[in-house]
Amino acid sequence: MAMFSEVKAIYFDLDDTLCGYWDAAKRALAETWEVVPVPGFTPEQLHEAWVEEFRIFADALKTSHWYEIYLSQGSITRTQLMREALLRLEIDDAHLAWRLSDEYGRRRAQYLSLFDDARALLDDLKPRYVLGVITNGPADIQREELRDLGIEGVFDHFFIEGEMGEGKPEPRVMARATQAAGCAPHEILMVGNSYRHDIIPAMDAGWRTCWIRRDSDVPPTSRTGKVESLPEGGPAPDATIGQLDELRELLGIRTQLAP
Prior knowledge:
Largest sheet: 6 strands, parallel
Shape: elongated
CATH topology of the largest domain: Rossmann fold
Number of domains: 2
CATH superfamily of the largest domain: HAD superfamily/HAD-like
Order of helices and strands: EHHHHHHEHEHHEHEEH
Number of strands: 6
Strand content: 5-15%
Helix content: 40-55%
Strand order of the largest sheet: 3-2-1-4-5-6
CATH architecture of the largest domain: 3-Layer(aba) Sandwich
């Protein structure tokens, strides 16, 4: 597409843009409730308690004392969330909360994987563009994901919430990324799955935008069970795609066929 012909730098979100975070999380949670049973409660009851506490915890996180801890050590706040879920069921057991958290964290890391078309696309883009990742989450967890997925070496720039002390959609994050890219805002493309955290702040920064929407991108805390939709009256991104492979056509990159 002509509007992407001037793009010189591409920033990607990480979770549920390049890798299936919610798929891994939902599978890990379901298995955790089974392998670390809580006497007197079904897996469904445990999951419901976790979901309710996640909503409360996530909404209040950035204004709570837990935020500074969360930025550097995701396991601590993950365990606290499990403890809050147990307390909702009138179970005050710190060790059990740790067991649940540890099991969930290990399984989620085990199941996290790149989307099938992600690696080949990144390899195609690497010689052509400045590449960066802008991701929210704890520093330790996000770095671990990048290493485990084998893509840390692909990117020129990293903007990780836990390392910066703030994350998307803060305008300062996009300003830092613009400066690092070394080109004009209209020459930068943001590719992400979150309209609120990826698309809107990129638009506000003057970047080009590509919103990736997959049917699987539904968190376990969703009240609708549906993928995020464009808010009524909200500005549309420059492009919307269903899989990463579609970026090649938008950018005018032809895939070379093997002889």
